[in-house]
Amino acid sequence: MKNLLVTGGAGFIGSNFARYMLQKYPQYQIVVFDLLTYAGNLDNLRAVADDARYTFVQGDICDAAAVRAALRKYRIDTIVNFAAESHVDRSILDADAFLRTNVMGTFTLLQAAKELGLERYHQISTDEVYGWVDKPAVEDDPLIPRSPYAASKASGDLMVNAYYVTHGVPTTITRGSNTIGPYQYPEKVVPLFVTNALENKPLPLYGDGKQVRDWLYVTDHCEAVDVVLHHGKIGEAYNVGGENERENVEVVKMILDTLDKAPDLVRRVADRSGHDRRYALDLTKMRALGWQPRHSFEQALTETIRWYENNAWWWQKIKSGEYREYYEKQYGERLRTSEAVTV
């Protein structure tokens, strides 16, 4: 493993992973392959732009010719696929892009990995493929996705397993919990609430805010993918979580407290359709590889908040144009009919 194609590498976790790998492995070449849709951003890779071991290629993972050309040109031996449509709310509004990228894109990459005989294909997945759980999910639990986003990711996982079983493609999968940290597009709940609070704008809290998520800091997520790439068993999936289960209302309260903002910024809005109540992961398999999360919930959230507080240059220009159109579509009517709530 020496030449990695990091698809979706200009997005949130992918860009953090590219920077992490370049820092840790001086002998590795990292080629970021990204279409630069709304959440892809070359500012995320500004810190490594002048590194001779880093190359950026703008391309679509559904474009088989472009994928194969990049694999051949840069002598890629490993694909790490972060490329995905990943926001549940957008998948509810319009699922088409999710099926294209998360299913057909995964197929295109797997087919290329098979034909060119790559050393490894690694799929970045999500805890949402297990659906709403009463106890922490283990890797061989049934996949019971409940949103179009989760269904598209579960479909990708099943295709990865099929290419391993049928064609012998050397695959691995990591299923990560809710990840936070620098460079996350501000449609997701934590950067949305942090940046809104910094601008003294309402924080739209879905329903009663009692939905439980497991929070994972992005560098911990990157380390886990690294460990699986180098020590994971071919054909296996691995759960990657922070073991930081919190209700959304707790997260909102800590954001406001950390930023010293008034609690009356919170607005209770109509809940998301089919909103899963709890995600949780059993980390036994990852611990057996010697990995465990380094960040507590308080550390992860505080570091994330401080990054957005200190990097307004990054997010202020994002929260315009396409973002404003989406925000109005998703929250406009909800906020107009919302009620203030003290957390």
Write the layout of secondary structure elements.
Elements: E1 3-7, H1 12-24, E2 29-34, E3 54-58, H2 64-73, E4 78-81, H3 88-93, H4 96-116, E5 120-126, H5 148-167, E6 171-176, E7 178-180, H6 189-198, E8 203-206, E9 212-217, H7 218-231, E10 237-240, E11 245-247, H8 248-259, E12 266-269, H9 284-288, H10 297-310, H11 312-316, H12 322-336, E13 339-340
Parallel strand pairs: 1-2, 1-4, 2-3, 4-5, 5-6, 6-10, 7-9, 8-12
Antiparallel strand pairs: 9-11, 12-13
Helix pairs in contact: 1-7, 2-4, 4-5, 6-8, 6-10
Concise overview:
With 343 residues, the protein is α/β, with parallel strands linked by helices.
Question: Could you walk me through the main structural features you see in this protein, from its secondary elements to its overall organization?
Answer:
This protein has 343 residues and is an alpha/beta fold. It has a domain at 3-180 and 216-240: Rossmann fold, CATH 3.40.50. The chain is built from twelve helices and 13 strands. The protein has helices spanning 12-24, 64-73, 88-93, 96-116, 148-167, 189-198, 218-231, 248-259, 284-288, 297-310, 312-316, 322-336; strands at 3-7, 29-34, 54-58, 78-81, 120-126, 171-176, 178-180, 203-206, 212-217, 237-240, 245-247, 266-269, 339-340. The strands form three sheets. A seven-stranded parallel β-sheet has the order 3-2-1-4-5-6-10, with helices on both faces. Helix 1 crosses helix 7 (218-231), helix 2 (64-73) crosses helix 4 and helix 6 packs across helix 10 (297-310). It starts with a strand and ends with a strand. The model has no long low-confidence stretch (mean pLDDT 97).
